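User: Good morning. I'm curious how zinc ion would be positioned relative to this chain. Could you predict the structure with it bound?
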Amino acid sequence: MRSALIGQQTVCFSSRRLNGPAPSVGRVIEQIERSGRDFEFVWDDGLVLRTELKRTGSWDLYRVGDRWRRKQSDATALIESTDWIAVCFDAAEVETFRSEPIDRHPSRGRVGPDLSDPYVDRELVVNAIIEHHDPSTRIREALLDPRIVRGLGNVYAAEAMWATRLSPWARIGDIARSDLIMLVNYASRILRDHLDALEDEGFVRLIPFEVYGRNGRACTRCKDSIGLTTAPPDDRPLYWCPGCQTRLDWRLLDDTPPAGARSA
Ligand SMILES: [Zn+2]
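Assistant: Good morning! Here's the predicted structure, ligand included:
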């Protein structure tokens, strides 16, 4: 199920008894964890789906168009990508929640504008980055901070940084306002383009990603190999092109060793 679904956009989700918000079409599954009869699916926008199976329960995987091994009426939840359908049978519980701690503790501060809303004021996002209390924060961390911006997520943050050639390690205090405007505009457009492409039911026209899920393959712009590492804030996968995403890479700007490597 991991190799079929991770890194794929969700084309359809349905559940007969879901407790919580439904995963959005166009979002990408980044993690699938299993512990006994508990399954957890984590989408790139931070939504987590948890199912607890009954003794008779199972998660089955089918190619689109294949005949199911169990009755359709026994299905409790269904996740569909372009090629695969994962079907949950006989679940005792199907629930979703947000993984960002900020959403569980609203008292920790306000929540940023939702970039997946086409009418959002994008300048609010630019200003929130500029007004961040710590100018040494890496741009990727800022883009994944729900207090600054919501609705973007790990996948589209990576695509937007690639589009503007910004290094994910660029410090926000080093980035000009004009570059931030370009980044936020790109992020919003890439997000809308990908989500709109999936909106017409029955007509799936997926736009390929440039960096996400493409580690080891050639960058379409500079032919260098797309890199993969993990990085703060949450050690989610970071895809970037080391060949052409070098703008404001702090590692090239000075000789400051990474935190923890400094001698006493
Ligand atoms: Zn490149």
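The first helix runs from residue 2 to 5. The pocket of zinc ion is lined by residues 219, 221-222, 224, 241, 243-244 (CB under 6 Å).
Let me know if you'd like a different ligand tried.
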